[in-house]
Specification:
The chain is of the alpha/beta class and 400 residues long. It contains twelve helices and twelve strands. Strand 10 and strand 11 form a beta hairpin.
Length: 400
């Protein structure tokens, strides 16, 4: 009887150990088993930024699917679990809790939305979870964040480069009257930080600054004040829908001189032309910025993405935001490859820190990470409109 009892106890202990290993992962690392790596994602799939979140998550899923078909990395295949936050911060936090508590993810990829990212990146840092925000408003170097790696150009950098371009190229040494219309949140504040920094360097001031509430639909008062300020350059710091509303409002006014509108990257998707009067003068001469290569361009990453799209989902409409997800997946999987078979979160972080001049097949400018630098891309390029499509106006311009 005693032998049977001891055997029973031993069996229970063994079962508990096996169950613990299967739920905690390979060697006790959450999100890693002997044959699987679980990656989490949070994107806007139903709100105002769905034009970015849907193609981005679709591209990541497709990239990981291809790697799985090729045998995975170090004998492990990927499971991609992603949630829809609808661009609502409480849902972003709830999605994070679900992915970390229920799904047991190894790393987290975040979509767009500064306030959304800012709500969960402190949680990821506290939980020692490697996370990949889409650029953003908060500099992860101040104070240093070990587990955050930004895969998009920081908003302050884009704001800085826009003013540089106005001062050095468009205005050519003159004293231009510049207006800035931005969302009243962290993203608008971050762009404004870079704008003010560059304005000071060029000896300029902001003629007019307007901040609108999140999810606004009426921009008449903001455009009216920019018109009254007689601005020559108007920076549209918004997403797609809001940018279209501003351009549609602007055409109602008689301007003297007519301003040059400049849209930030989140408004420069070709879907914009479905929301505006395509024959409008401000639309035809619109200038934009981008921090991801053109999806219909000839960069190796864009060519590879389009080829895979034809194989896996030929009816899916390609977009620059899909290419953003493709580049993110490329960075993450290469870092996992470098981290080796004995994969842990700490080894993943160390692997990313060692990446120098990482080339994501031309999707981003070459990226450098280190123990003190968590920002990958540090530049953008400018776009113009041609036949109701955005085309490249400049090559990559990096912040000096």
């Amino acid at each position: 009887m005693r032998v049977f009892k001891n055997l029973s106890i031993s069996f229970v202990v063994l079962w508990v150990l096996i169950f613990s290993m299967s739920s905690s992962g390979f060697g006790g690392e959450v999100g890693v088993t002997d044959d699987t790596i679980i990656i989490g994602g949070i994107f806007d799939l139903s709100g105002p930024l769905t034009f970015a979140g849907t193609p981005e998550s679709h591209a990541i899923n497709m990239y990981l699917k291809r790697i799985n078909e090729q045998g995975g990395i170090h004998g492990r295949k990927f499971k991609f679990v992603f949630e829809d936050d609808g661009y609502q911060v409480p849902r972003t936090v709830a999605a994070y809790r679900k992915l970390t508590g229920q799904d047991g993810i190894f790393a987290l990829v975040l979509g767009s939305g500064s306030s959304n990212m800012n709500a969960v990146t402190p949680l990821a840092e506290k939980d020692k979870l490697p996370a990949f925000p889409s650029g953003g408003s908060k500099d992860p170097r101040i104070p240093p964040k070990r587990y955050l790696f930004h895969t998009g150009t920081m908003y302050s950098t884009m704001g800085h480069l826009i003013i540089d371009y106005i001062a050095d190229v468009l205005a050519k040494g003159k004293k231009p009257r510049i207006a800035h219309i931005a969302q009243d949140d962290a993203s608008g504040e971050a762009h404004l930080e870079g704008i003010k920094e560059s304005l000071q360097q060029h000896g300029l001031t902001l003629t007019e600054g307007q901040r609108y509430k999140r999810l606004s639909v009426d921009f008449s008062s903001y455009i009216s004040k920019v018109h009254q300020a007689n601005a020559e350059y108007v920076i549209i710091d918004s997403a797609l829908r809001e940018a279209a509303a501003m351009l549609n409002e602007a055409k109602k006014y008689t301007w003297n001189p007519e301003p040059q509108f400049i849209a930030i990257s989140f408004a420069t998707d070709n879907k914009l032309f479905n929301l505006v009067d395509q024959d409008d003068r401000f639309v035809k001469k619109l200038i934009g910025t981008a921090f991801v290569a053109m999806v219909d361009g000839d960069s190796p990453g864009a060519v590879d993405y389009r080829s895979c799209l034809q194989k896996y989902d030929p009816k899916y409409e390609p977009s620059n935001f899909a290419l953003f997800g493709w580049g993110k997946a490329m960075l993450l999987t290469e870092a996992i490859r470098k981290a080796g078979r004995d994969l842990t979160k700490e080894k993943l972080v160390d692997a990313i820190e060692s990446m120098k001049n990482f080339d994501a097949a031309g999707i981003f400018p070459p990226m450098n990470f280190s123990s003190t630098d968590r920002i990958g891309p540090k530049g953008c390029y400018f776009l113009r409109v041609e036949k109701n499509r955005f085309v490249k106006l400049t090559d990559w311009i990096l912040l000096k």
